[in-house]
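Deliverable D4.2, example record:
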Amino acid sequence: MLAGKLVAEFIGTFFLVFTIGMTVKSPDASALAPLAIGSALMIMVYATGHISGGHLNPAVTLGVTLRGKCTWADAIPYMVAQVIAAVAAAALVLFIKGTATGGAVSPPSPIQYTVAAKLLVEFLFTFALVFVVLSTATAKGTQGNSFYGLAIGFTVVVGAFAAGPVSGGAFNPAVAVGVGVFDSSTIPGIWIPLVADFLGGAAAAIVFQAFDMGGDRKAA
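Output generated by the structure prediction step:
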């Protein structure tokens, strides 16, 4: 159904643009931003390809439509969803980067982010991770594939580049607990990944099921 396709295009485009912003915008821009950006595109194409075609780009949608592989009835809403996703992602990047403090004095002090920024990036990339897992390892459209491990692993790579400097990049409650064991300094803030990661995983499952992205109702 069109709604599910639009949500898939929104999610894929959102995380692509969000990764771009988080890795190229100062402070703490990454020298390996191109790797994270390319990885983000790869995993989101894997995750959305069986749902919407994984365009994630109005120019791609135009080309596919002119090729006759997408209808204009789908193409226009696709482009709208992609642009809205890009604007939303950019707005969140500006918010998160704007919370950073430190790094401006000599010698530079450690860059610090607010609790809200940490909760947000942990939620978003855990959402992305669980969405990719559900899309590549549980959906009928990707059954029997051999790429799910690559897509899931690279989701964590992208998250580590884009959000690691903000929150530490757990995206996994068990990882947060393990880090707390060998680094007691993280214990006061351990509630952040525990809360955000469980919420992100639950939200991904709810969206995936609500829009039948696994194809369960279509096959019934």
